[in-house]
């Protein structure tokens, strides 16, 4: 129930919850509201171009009735001059929030939920990469991060011997986050495109020589023997003391996920993320192919990759060892839905034992493509197997097939 009285110290003091609202008799539009908890706030009501507005002046614990009326008169004057004071106030508040939006706050509360909606499997990794790469900028306001800040970051990473591709990749992730911030109105724009980044020579392809391939496969077998010997030795120790024995590797081809993972990478050309995301529902043994789901592919396009005898036999035996699991490459058969996430330690040791240098896990993909080209597979088929969106990336393997060029020239001889 609204009452009409001049708003004074006395009328405000005597206002009851059931009064709900008091309209000032001296200034049209000036009124006070009381909440169910007894809190009184002053407002100024006005119309602008037929639209109703209710402008909050402040609460009774911060403003006296006289101060509230004076403020209402000032607002009334601005309204009379054609200003939409309510919209101006909201925009000012929004600008204030934008000016104080920290990078870490934006990443955690806004950008991460967006990433999660796109791909829950990679969102955590993407957020972790952003925060670890740009830790010195996390407490900076989003709008205050400049190209110069990032140019200094690039210089520091170059000094620390970071690979150009790593620097470009990290900076690309940050630019993507800033692009979304512009779209969503958190910042008006950014100039991060002005940051000069080191160029990457994508034409250089690292693949294994025949000797290196043999050394790599021998290294995997040596690792297998070492793990088997350690398990047998541990069980002898435990048996002597009547401790429960660890599961035996007798009769099993693989001691863990690592060997089938390497074999699959070398014979399918799948990316690391595509490999680790594989489930047994993606492997079709009867038809002898596997599927890279669109959600797990870099190009966001699904593709089928045939299984040659080597990878078919490896996956078939690995499946027989893990008949109740859902994920292909798991750390333990007792956890059927937890995929391997980190292979750095065994991969690094394998390269050391095999005496192979300057070779990344991703280069197994190049090795797969290079072998195909060198035995005469056409580049378009290689492109389809690798899942490249266009031929540009696949063309870097073209120099491995000089006989094709010679054959083309001889056709007009």
TrEMBL record:
Domain Tyr recombinase intervals: 203-410
Keyword Phosphoprotein included in the entry's annotation: no
Stretches that traverse the bilayer: none
PROSITE patterns from the UniProt entry: CB (PS51900), TYR_RECOMBINASE (PS51898)
The keyword Nucleotide-binding belongs to this UniProt entry's keyword annotation: no
Domain Core-binding (CB) span(s) in chain numbering: 105-182
Pfam families given in the database record: Arm-DNA-bind_3, Phage_integrase
CDD domains (UniProt xref): INT_Rci_Hp1_C (cd00796)
Keyword terms of this UniProt record: DNA integration, DNA recombination, DNA-binding
UniProt record similarity statement: Belongs to the 'phage' integrase family.
PANTHER family, per the entry: PHAGE INTEGRASE-RELATED, PROPHAGE INTEGRASE INTD-RELATED
Protein name: Tyrosine-type recombinase/integrase
Organism phylogeny: Bacteria, Pseudomonadati, Pseudomonadota, Gammaproteobacteria, Vibrionales
């Amino acid at each position: 129930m609204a009452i009409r009285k001049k708003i004074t110290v006395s009328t405000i003091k005597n206002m009851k919850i059931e009064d709900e609202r008091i309209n000032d008799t001296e200034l049209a539009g000036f009124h006070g509201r009381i909440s169910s908890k007894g809190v009184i706030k002053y407002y100024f009501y006005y119309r602008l171009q037929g639209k109703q507005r209710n402008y909050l002046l402040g609460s009774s614990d911060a403003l006296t009735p006289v101060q509230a009326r004076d403020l209402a008169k000032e607002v009334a004057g601005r309204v009379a001059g054609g200003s939409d004071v309510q919209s101006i106030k909201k925009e000012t508040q929004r600008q204030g929030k934008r000016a104080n939006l920290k990078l870490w706050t934006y990443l955690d509360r806004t950008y991460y939920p967006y990433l999660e909606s796109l791909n829950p499997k990679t969102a955590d990794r993407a957020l972790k990469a952003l925060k670890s790469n740009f830790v010195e900028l996390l407490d900076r306001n989003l709008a205050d991060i400049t190209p110069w800040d990032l140019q200094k970051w690039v210089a520091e990473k170059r000094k620390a011997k970071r690979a150009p591709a790593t620097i470009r990749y990290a900076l690309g992730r940050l630019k993507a986050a800033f692009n979304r911030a512009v779209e969503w109105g958190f910042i008006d724009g950014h100039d991060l495109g002005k940051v000069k980044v080191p160029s990457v020579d994508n034409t250089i392809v690292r693949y294994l020589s025949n000797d290196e391939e043999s050394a790599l496969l021998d290294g995997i077998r040596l690792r297998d023997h070492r793990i088997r010997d350690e398990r047998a030795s541990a069980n002898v120790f435990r048996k002597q003391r009547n401790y429960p024995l660890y599961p035996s590797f007798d009769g099993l081809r693989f001691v863990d996920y690592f060997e089938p993972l390497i074999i699959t990478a070398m014979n399918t050309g799948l990316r690391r993320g595509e490999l680790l995301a594989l489930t047994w529902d993606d492997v079709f043994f009867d038809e002898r192919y596997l599927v890279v789901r669109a959600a797990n592919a870099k190009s966001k396009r699904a593709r089928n990759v045939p299984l040659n005898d080597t990878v078919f036999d490896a996956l078939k035996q690995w499946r027989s060892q893990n008949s109740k699991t859902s994920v292909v490459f798991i750390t333990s058969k007792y956890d059927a839905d937890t995929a391997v996430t980190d292979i750095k330690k065994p991969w690094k040791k394998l390269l050391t034992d095999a005496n192979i240098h300057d070779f990344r896990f991703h280069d197994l993909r190049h090795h797969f493509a290079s072998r195909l080209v060198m035995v005469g597979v056409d580049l378009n088929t290689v492109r389809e197997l690798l899942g490249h969106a266009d031929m540009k990336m696949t063309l870097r393997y073209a120099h491995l097939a000089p006989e094709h060029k010679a054959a083309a020239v001889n056709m007009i001889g």
